[in-house]
Amino acid sequence: QKEVEQNSGPLSVPEGAIASLNCTYSDRGSQSFFWYRQYSGKSPELIMSIYSNGDKEDGRFTAQLNKASQYVSLLIRDSQPSDSATYLCAVTGWGGGFKTIFGAGTRLFVKA
Amino acid sequence: ETGVTQTPRHLVMGMTNKKSLKCEQHLGHNAMYWYKQSAKKPLELMFVYSLEERVENNSVPSRFSPECPNSSHLFLHLHTLQPEDSALYLCASSQDRAGISGGEQFFGPGTRLTVL
Which residues of A touch B109 (CB under 8 A)? Predict the structure, then answer.
């Protein structure tokens, strides 16, 4: 079982729609959760972090965390073509020493 | 210079060459990381340095040798690499190694390495 799992996509949504990106993790003791955006040919860039159950909103982005289900998601409202990128989920915790583990990412394509 | 910088941006080397990748962070962070990113695979953590001390080495082959002379600079020395080592090598930094800030990492632009 992968430690951090994401659907590789591509996820295709029309411009203006809500894009929903999902991530599950295996370590129940995980503490902090992050979403990174990586444009093609570029390096990852941190866009959201969430530490407690519930929703956290930042502009058009909302991160949702459900620790009981070991599930974290990222919603992008009013999706724009410029949101087309790969979104990486990262999870940190103290299992076997402090670790930050990245998922393989979900490719998002926003159609104009 | 701001953020995290890496040089060179592109590198082509033969299997018998020796080369070094350089990373510099201008953020005053205490932790620095080397990652390998191959197509359609998760980021693979290679090495972690915290306050100039190596705190993690994820079973990386000895043909990769890291060096951290101070908290702002990180090197990855390469020798006798294999074609399967071709990948994007990313350097990152964070305020601290552990805790909340350990996951808030700032990445450099990466070095695209091709081993012939």
Answer: 42-43
For the cut 90, the answer to whether the pLDDT of residue B91 exceeds it is: yes
What is the DSSP code string of A68-99?
A: TTTEEEEEESS--GGG-EEEEEEEEE-TTS-E
Pair A92, A31: CB distance under 8 Å: yes
Contact A49 B103 (CB under 8 A): yes
List, for residues B36-58, the tens digit of each pLDDT value.
Answer: 999 878 899 999 998 878 877 77
- If chain A, 112 residues long, is cut into consecutive pieces of 10 residues, what is the mean pLDDT of each piece? 85 97 93 95 95 96 97 97 97 80 94 94
Contact residues of A toward B, CB < 8 A: 2, 4, 8, 31-34, 42-46, 49, 51, 88, 90-92, 94, 97-105
Amino acid at B9: R
Q: Which of B64-67's residues contact partners 24+ apart within 8 Å by CB, and which partners?
A: B66/B34
